[in-house]
Amino acid sequence: MSTEPSTALAELQDRCNAALVGLLGHGNSEFAAEAGPHLVRLFEASAYALTRGGKRVRPLLVYAAAAAVRPASLDAGEHDPAGIDYVACAAEMVHAYSLVHDDLPAMDDDDLRRGQPTTHKAFDEATAILVGDGLQARALELLTDAPELSAETRLELVRSLAAAAGLRGMVGGQAIDIGAVDQSIDSNHLETMHALKTGALIRSSVAMGALAAGASDEQQGALDDFADAIGLAFQVCDDILDATSDSETLGKRAGADQALHKPTYVSTLGLEVARDKAEGLLAEALAALESFGDSAALLREIADFIVHRQR
Question: Torsions phi, psi of 130, nearest 5?
Fold first, then answer.
């Protein structure tokens, strides 16, 4: 049982962090040569939202899924980021954008994220909205630029991430979440909400890593079964931590869901049943990886970390 990332996962976190800094880009614009000085603050705010802490679960899943299919796919570029780094960073940029917008006053109205002021508090609300917009667009741009990957693969990656982030995925889940405030919903309704709000991007992260490594249809199916289970487990554990931990440990406001009158797995099922559900989902996720043998070791580590983490 792992409550912190292993050395191997920590190295991949560091790899992603280094790539994020470079792949975010700079203020120079191909559309106006003189734009650079006017974009400095926007890029500072974007870097603030993207690079200050975080578990990097989604890029880790990209890397680990690619390794499960073809271990050599994690070979790093000699100087520049490899294609798989572009994919991993795209997943993290969409996640970061979702957090920036989720924290806004019109959404969850949070002041703290990853132990620091949220982007709209550190800068301002309008800038935070633009940061989210820009990170989402930059993520899709990265997928079109990913080196070493065919045009067909890049197109599949863009479709996967755009669908997961959009109206039928994460944004749709957010809409269901907003509509559920002050409502009593059953566990099926709750699961549908989180399959979109949290699970869609996690499933896409795994799918993109597999696509980038050239997975077969059979491998894609098994990995999607894994991602479906572990994506739901992630949210169950988030709900447990929100109810049982403290703000200092979490790096964000504890008890936020209860304060906002949002339904959670803990409020719907009870704490002990929620814990049992998380363990059951972990077992399902691990069972889906049986055909991969040792090549799925990183995915197994991530799954264990997701369920047993302390923040």
Answer: -65, -35
Alpha carbon distance 1, 309 (integer Å): 9
Render each residue's pLDDT in the chain as its tens digit; 311 residues: 666 778 899 999 999 999 999 999 888 899 999 999 999 999 999 999 999 989 999 999 999 999 999 988 887 655 578 999 999 999 999 999 999 999 999 999 999 998 899 999 999 999 999 999 999 999 999 999 999 999 999 999 999 999 999 999 999 999 999 998 888 888 899 999 999 999 999 999 999 999 999 999 999 999 999 999 999 999 999 999 988 888 777 777 767 777 777 889 998 899 999 999 999 999 999 999 999 999 999 999 999 999 998 87
CA–CA–CA angle 93, 96, 98 (5° rounding): 110
Q: Give the 3-state secondary structure of residue 7.
A: helix
| DSSP summary character for residue 32 | B
Q: pTM for the whole thing?
A: 0.94
> Distance between CA 263 and CA 257 in Å, rounded?
7
The helix/strand/coil state of 253 is coil
Please calculate the CA angle 240-243-248 and round it to the nearest 5 degrees.
105
Cα–Cα dist 210/68, whole Å: 8
DSSP single-letter state for residue 295:
G
Domains and CATH numbers, the chain: 7-308 (1.10.600.10)
Q: To 5 degrees, how large is the angle CA 51–CA 54–CA 58?
A: 100
In 3D, which of 121, 67, 120 has the Cα closest to residue 97? 120
